């Protein structure tokens, strides 16, 4: 007889149960443990059932977690707090908020810990639940957590994520001690809500105060740099990444690719791309998009082919990038092939963005009839306005006003409240000589209270970004800028430049038109850049709208007379001007 008999089946001590619970967050073993607890009567042990519930949540079995929780007759504050925190940590924000509400009802005298408030606020942030988050904020203030750094940092991130930057900044400014998490949340909030200049300004403040930053800070700043074309600061951040020994992982690497590509330095973007070991679909797509937006369509297609052969499967965003690259480079056959492979080779269903790229590609190539037939074949009752905008832009580009007039009606019917459509249509009518329709379109804009978007250009000098609008005279160096620009315009006129008056309102007199186009924002920014940078350095400008034809023509001449490379990123793409030619080959 065995002197050391095994214990009876299903007999486990509390210590054995705890050992099993620590084995790992896999659901099937947890269910087996739960069965043992029920059979042995140990399910009444609150400590064990609490651990089982938390591990079930960690195993991402939310339904089973709810069943376990509901089986507990009188959950204690520890279980509430632990489960709320676990729900938030494991990305079940809705359950975290609902359980917080139940806790307040079940245990009204409970004073939640800062960890609970931090978890609930984080969950509200993930849900973008601004109203609920404000209530939780009030609860935290009443419970005396208005000076808690963790709660305050979570509130900054919450308000920033919900787009309420005023409240986010108020909480941030009132923090007695700002953690790097709070700084990161505020910088990221500005960047993600389109206030890149403020994000960069806050980072400069952070740097001046000697606040230590981490990789998350640098990723947000790189994104802000890419939006405003701040290459100098982006290069400084890249240097800090190297100096601090950060790994060139896919997150940092992709951020650097985007920054360099969107600042017009494609060669540096490719260098970073080649250094990333664990390239994923996002990094491949970023590099393909970078080639495309800078006019390197062939390189974009070649990299796409390499990705298909040796990289991860492309996704729908990858196909938008390669189709856009083909559209801007006139690679119609390559674009057709890529579009066909989307469904045939990868089983992806083309979305509206892909259809827009196809119409844009066909239209730019002068295949207007085919582009129009493509739109008619779309299995849609009402094609998106972007489809008609691409078609109308192609009609204007190729001076096909018969098609343009037909497309204009479709565009206004699809999106009657967008002022940029009226401006584009007005220009098409004017070029077609239909001045009565121009007047009618402008009257409709006035009646609807629509105004054309204000154009502006930004330029970075010595890690500081400067903004110019048309005819802007607010800069301290205005006199010098205008004098230098007038000199430039005189020099390029002697070299053969002729103003393109179609770039401004058509009812102006010719002399007025020439004056208007002379002081467009990108010309002012270029003049300022040349005055404040060394000879031989490229001048980089970012324009928020599409660059007009006159500026495009003038800048080609300016690149000749100054022997400077000029890089302009407008709403649609990059233009690299060198020795009188543009990288777009006038195909824009």
From TrEMBL:
One of its GO terms (biological process) is RNA modification. InterPro entries: DYW_dom, E2_motif, E_motif, PPR_At4g14850-like_plant, PPR_rpt, TPR-like_helical_dom_sf. It holds the Pfam family PPR_2. GO terms for molecular function: RNA binding; zinc ion binding. Keywords: Repeat. Belongs to the PPR family. PCMP-H subfamily. This is DYW domain-containing protein.
């Amino acid at each position: 007889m065995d002197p050391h008999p095994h214990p009876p089946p299903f007999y486990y001590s509390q210590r054995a149960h705890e050992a099993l619970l620590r084995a790992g967050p896999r659901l099937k073993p947890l269910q087996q443990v739960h069965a043992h607890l029920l059979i042995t009567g140990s399910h009444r042990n609150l400590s064990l059932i609490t651990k089982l519930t938390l591990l079930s949540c960690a195993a991402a079995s939310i339904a089973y977690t709810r069943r376990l929780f509901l089986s507990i007759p009188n959950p204690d504050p520890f279980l509430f707090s632990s489960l709320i925190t676990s729900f938030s940590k494991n990305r079940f924000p809705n359950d975290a908020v609902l359980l917080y509400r139940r806790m307040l009802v079940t245990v009204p005298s409970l004073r939640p810990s800062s960890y609970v408030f931090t978890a609930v606020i984080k969950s509200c942030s993930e849900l973008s639940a601004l109203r609920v988050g404000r209530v939780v904020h009030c609860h935290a203030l009443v419970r005396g957590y208005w000076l808690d750094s963790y709660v305050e940092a979570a509130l900054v991130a919450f308000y920033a994520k919900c787009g309420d930057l005023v409240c986010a900044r108020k909480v941030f400014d009132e923090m007695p001690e700002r953690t790097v998490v709070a700084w990161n949340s505020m910088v990221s909030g500005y960047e993600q809500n389109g206030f890149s200049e403020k994000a960069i300004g806050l980072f400069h403040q952070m740097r001046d105060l000697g606040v230590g930053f981490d990789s998350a800070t640098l990723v947000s700043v790189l994104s802000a740099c890419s939006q405003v074309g701040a290459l100098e600061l982006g290069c400084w951040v890249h240097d800090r990444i190297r100096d601090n020994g950060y790994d060139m992982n896919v997150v940092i690497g992709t951020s650097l690719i985007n920054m360099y590509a969107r600042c017009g330095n494609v060669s540096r973007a490719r260098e970073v791309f080649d250094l990333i070991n664990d390239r994923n679909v996002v990094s491949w797509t970023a590099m393909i998009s970078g080639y495309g937006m800078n006019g390197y369509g062939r390189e974009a297609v070649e990299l796409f082919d390499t990705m298909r052969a040796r990289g991860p499967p492309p996704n729908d965003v990858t196909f938008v990038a390669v189709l856009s690259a083909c559209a801007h480079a006139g690679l119609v056959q390559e674009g057709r092939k890529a579009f066909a492979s989307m469904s045939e080779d990868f089983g992806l269903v083309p979305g509206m963005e892909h259809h827009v790229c196809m119409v844009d590609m066909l239209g730019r190539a002068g295949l207007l009839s085919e582009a129009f037939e493509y739109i008619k074949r779309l299995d849609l009752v009402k094609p998106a306005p972007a489809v008609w905008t691409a078609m109308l832009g192609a009609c204007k580009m190729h001076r096909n006003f018969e098609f343009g007039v037909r497309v204009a009606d479709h565009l206004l019917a699809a999106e009657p409240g967008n002022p940029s459509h009226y401006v584009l249509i007005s220009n098409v009518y004017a070029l077609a000589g239909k001045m009565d329709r121009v007047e009618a379109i402008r009257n409709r804009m006035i009646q609807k209270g629509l105004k054309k978007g204000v154009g502006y250009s930004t330029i970075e000098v010595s890690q500081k970004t400067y903004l110019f609008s048309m005819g802007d005279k607010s800069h301290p160096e205005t006199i010098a800028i205008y004098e230098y620009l007038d000199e430039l315009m005189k020099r390029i006129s002697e070299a053969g430049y002729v103003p393109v008056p179609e770039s401004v309102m058509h009812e102006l007199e010719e002399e007025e038109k020439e004056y208007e186009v002379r002081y467009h924002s990108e010309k002012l920014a270029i003049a300022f850049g040349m005055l404040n940078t060394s000879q031989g350095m490229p001048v980089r400008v970012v324009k928020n709208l599409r660059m007009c034809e006159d500026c495009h023509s003038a800048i080609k001449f300016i690149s000749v007379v100054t022997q400077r490379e000029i890089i302009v990123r407008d709403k649609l793409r990059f233009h690299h001007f060198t020795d009188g030619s543009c990288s777009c080959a006038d195909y824009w």
